[in-house]
Amino acid sequence: MSASIERLNPPALPDAGKIGYSQITVSTPGRIAFVSGQVAWLADGSGTPQALAEQTAVVIGNLKAALAAIQATQRDILQMRIYLTELTPENQELVMEQLLGFLDGAMPSVTGLGVVALAAPDLKLEIEMTVQVPD
């Protein structure tokens, strides 16, 4: 059986499609990958950028590397959870602008959370993914 993904924004819920994600994602049976939260740490261990925009770019680079490791694309992402230490409209807009560019029209289900802290004091953003692994 081939796996498939269906995205829904039913009329009884706010239209999340207007801002680039889906209220509901339905996946048929298949292999699922749970990608740990990615932060602004590089594989070479170099320093963490201080600015949120630069941290977001590193996080997205890590998300791309994780997708490549399982031979998946943005279209295979079922859900993303975004953790932000300073959840303001401006920071949310900055992260979402870069994230929507990365998603390139894919519309996974997305949850955004404001948190007090992440794994290290200099981290401002963490994003995790649930991905349907292609056949």
How would you portray this structure in words?
The chain has 135 residues and is α+β, with helices and mostly antiparallel strands. It has one domain: 60s Ribosomal Protein L30, Chain: A (2-Layer Sandwich), CATH 3.30.1330.40. The protein is built from 2 helices and 6 strands; from the N terminus they run βββαβαββ. The protein has helices at 52-69, 89-103, and strands spanning 5-8, 24-27, 32-38, 77-84, 109-114, 125-132. It has a 4-stranded mixed β-sheet. α1 (52-69) packs parallel to α2. The radius of gyration is 15 Å and the shape is globular. The N and C termini lie close together (9 Å). The model has no long low-confidence stretch (mean pLDDT 95).
**Helical run tally:** 2
CATH architecture term: 2-Layer Sandwich
CATH class: Alpha Beta
- What is the fold-level CATH name, i.e. the topology? 60s Ribosomal Protein L30, Chain: A
Look at the structure and name the CATH superfamily: RutC-like
Q: Can you give the mean pLDDT?
A: 95
How many domain modules? 1
Q: What is the CA-CA span between the terminal residues?
A: 9 Å
State the share of residues found in helices, binned by percent: 10-25%
Order of SSEs, N→C?
EEEHEHEE
